[in-house]
Amino acid sequence: MTGRGFSRLRVAARVLLVSLSFSVLSVQTLMAQEPAVDPGEAPAAPRQPVSIDNTVEDRAIAERLGGILVSTGWFENPTVEVREGVVFLDGAAGSQDHRRWAGELAANTQGTVAVVNRIEVRADLRSTFGRAGEESTRLYRQAVQAWPLVLLALIIAVATFLVAALIGRFARSFLSERISSPLLRSVVVRAITIPVFLLGIYFVLQVAGLTSLAVTVLGGTGLIGIVIGFAFRDIAENFLASLLLSTRNPFRSGDLIDVAGHVGIVQNLNTRSTVLLTLDGNHVQIPNATVFKSIIKNYSSIPSRRAEFLVGIGYDSSTAKAQALITQVLRDHPAVLDNPEPLVLVDQLGAATVDLRVQYWFDSATYSPAKINSALLRLSKNALLSGGIEMPDPAREVVFPQGVPVYRGDRPAAKAPRAPSKKKTPPVDEKAVTLGEGNLRSETREAADRPKGDIPESSENLLKG
């Protein structure tokens, strides 16, 4: 930068210092000339008309108003001119409130017909700093007057919070043995502590002098609850459903259930959904409202389950013998329970077969229904074929595209009948379990032993077990 640039910079700095000094002196002078009336308070026009003792004349009105404006000290060079009852106000005011006050004063003066308010509001640097100083002084005075109330309000708020926390801890320990559901217990504790906290907020607003606001807060709490309930209806419905499910406990963690068309092992119940681990290894989240409204089939609620399958035999075969053979297969299998006893019932007489319905009970916590069904069907087929029981195909429609030949008169000589062929003896497999059927172990245990990964929303579980 050149020497000329430095000289310009020094001149600008000197001008800025002179301006600031003048501004400070102006503020001090303005504060020294302030009247005894508190400038921070908004001036109010007289409620009663200003009376004049003598006969109401233009000169009397002008002298009376001029004296009042000068005595306030709020105006610079105030002049009042009255012609035929019309008051003309001139001069300068420090704020719009002062200018408005002068106009209302003139309008309320006896004998005034109209008011022409030509008072200007000062907008120079001195008036701006003066108003800023006045506002700062007013705020400082209000803060000094209000700090004891603020301190008292803070003490009440902290004390209310501590009391609410203490009451909540006592209520939680008192209800821990009486309410088993953790969600319901949490809701009851909040229902006890929230009114205590709202009462403390009411006291704080009362101390602050906001009585109407305190009443509005307490009265509007119910309205806010209704509005939130309509806005978040689905969320509230799922929350209430989770509350009821955790209270009634229709299933536990690890149970195999069928709900809303999904079969899986219960992993988690949170405030929004129920998480299932399906038998094919996927996580399914079902909204609690859907779970609560749907039919729930719990396969793990009792240790035993009943399964069944159909077997068709020919009409020429002995039904009683077939029943005896299948019953023996059921009794010999280790997975089938003896009590209740297995049953082999004639279900219906079909078009080509006599259908037998086979029913048996097994331990669902240990064995898989699909694997047991596979083993029993295999063994029943072998037993029936080995016992000479026919198992024909269902009746079929036979189509002859070339037609059926019809003979009239002498038929051609029939060929010599063939010797009946010997039927092959079916292979007999007496094993209760084959390699393809695995170990008959329940899929619930197999799924529980597999890595589950990250369970969605598993931070909380409202179920027992």
Automatic annotation (TrEMBL):
Database matches in InterPro entries: BON_dom, LSM_dom_sf, MS_channel_C, MscS_archaea/bacteria_type, MscS_beta-dom_sf, MscS_channel_2nd, MscS_channel_C_sf, MscS_channel_CS
Stretch list, region Disordered: 406-465
Domain (BON): residue spans on this chain: 57-123
TM segment ranges: 146-167, 187-205, 211-232
Alphabetic keyword roster: Cell inner membrane, Cell membrane, Ion channel, Ion transport, Membrane, Signal, Transmembrane, Transmembrane helix, Transport
Places the protein is found: Cell inner membrane; Cell membrane
Membrane topology: Multi-pass membrane protein
Family: Belongs to the MscS (TC 1.A.23) family.
Assembly: Homoheptamer.
Stated name of the protein: Small-conductance mechanosensitive channel
Species annotation: Aquibium pacificus
